[in-house]
Amino acid sequence: xxxxxxxxxxxxxxxxxxxxxxxxxxxxxxxxxxxxxxxxxxxxxxxxxxxxxxxxxxxxxxxxxxxxxxxxxxxxxxxxxxxxxxxxxxxxxxxxxxxxxxxxxxxxxxxxxxxxxxx
Length: 119
Hints:
This protein is α+β, with helices and mostly antiparallel strands. It contains 3 helices and 5 strands; from the N terminus they run βααββαββ. This is Histidine kinase/HSP90-like ATPase domain-containing protein.
């Protein structure tokens, strides 16, 4: 069984709570990871960037899985896992996603990319 939710937003700060509202039926980890991926687009690609958020749920042999994908039109702004210092005001989002997700990655092409994670 496979379920898909696809949403289109402009990457703005007000899109994050709207995204969480659409994902209210999903668990906290799904909402958190989706919001972090959206926030990365705002911070590193630019506010107002069009994004597509997909949440795909599957019943896998080893239990249910959820894949979150955030697609934007900039193939160059790639996520980088960093160690945030204790006093840093940013840099923890991808580390948090890395800790929660079973795996994550980037699919790149000439006119965009998709950053994804699986929980």
